[in-house]
Amino acid sequence: MQPPVVRQVAPNKYELIMGERRFRAAKAAGLKTIPVIIRQTSDNELLREALIENIHRSQLNALEEAAAYSQLLTDFNCTHEELATKLGRSRPLISNTIRLMNLPVSVQQKVASGALSAGHARALLGLTDAHAIETLANQIVKEGLSVRATEQAIGASPTKKKTKKLTTVTSSIVEFNEIAERIGDALDTRVTIQGSVKKGTIVIEFAGAEDLKRLTQKLEG
Boundaries of each ParB-like N-terminal domain copy (predicted)? Predict the structure, then answer.
């Protein structure tokens, strides 16, 4: 088994790049020292690949993933599209996960502890008032609200029926775009709607087999 990978950030100080599980296992076993592989900080591409591998292999919560994505974007000048391609995930999923860092600290703590799921957290981003977000977050925990119930509570349910009658082609296009955006936000991927008010097609994009599996589970759940 390959030792954890680290990089030196200061004299006698190192940052773990890859091997989070191995590091935790060694710590739990009471080991004081473990062998590691030290990478030079100038090798940015290698460090980026190592961090991406760490995201794949580690059991990160949504906030830890958001921090890792943000680090990749900032440190290595990586775009959302590039990161999505590297990880085999959709760009909206990357973008929406990073947005979780904009939630109030108290709500972030609930996500980190597992009291709130990533789906709940992303739904809460539909609110703009910090107090309203915290209030609904507390309600979710107290009452055990599902993600769908949370979306309905903030008026963001992708299945909520529209009562407004579409009378023109222009209004139909606008309506389709709005619905597609809401469904896309709920599924964390890009969604497009084509057709007319009588008949049409919904296209849901996915990035690889794992992302397709995620979408299938989300739709079936």
Answer: 1-55
Non-local (6+) Cβ contacts of 8 within 8 A are 14, 15, 38, 41
Helical (H) or strand (E) element with 14 = strand 13-18
Residue at 4: amino acid letter: P
For residue 166, give Cα distances in angstroms to 103, 169, 183, 184.
Answer: 35, 8, 19, 21
Task: Give me the catalytic one of 15, 20, 134, 151.
Answer: 20
The one-letter code for the residue type at 9 is V
Residue-wise pLDDT tens digits, 42-68: 556 666 666 666 666 666 788 888 888
What H or E segment, with its residue span, contains residue 10? strand 5-10
Nearest alpha-carbon partner for 62 in 102, 112, 9, 17: 112
Domains and CATH numbers, the chain: 1-40 (3.90.1530.30), 103-155 (no CATH), 169-220 (no CATH)
Instruction: Tell me whether strands 191-195 and 200-204 are parallel, antiparallel or unpaired.
Output: antiparallel
> Active-site residue 20, yes or no?
yes
How much of the chain is helix, strand and coil, in % rounded to 5?
55, 10, 30
